[in-house]
Amino acid sequence: MVIGVDAGATTTRCVVATLDGVVAGRGTAGGANGNSSGGEVRAALGVALAAALGTVDRTAVRCGVLGAAGSAGAGRERFRAAAWQAWQDAGLAGELVTVTDLEVAFAAGTARSDGVLLLAGTGALAARFTEGKVEHRCDGYGWMLGDEGSAVWIGVRALRAVLAALDGRGEATALVDDVRNHFTIKPDKTEEEAQAVVYSAFAVPPAELGRLAPLVSEAAERGDPVATRICAKAADRLLHTYDSVGPGGDVTVLAGSVLLNPGPVSRAVRAGLLTRTATPPRPALDGAGGAAALAVGRLTGTPVPPVVHARLTGSARHPTTHDPSRG
Question: What domains, with CATH codes, occur in the chain?
Answer without folding.
Answer: 2-113+282-313 (3.30.420.40), 151-233 (3.30.420.40)
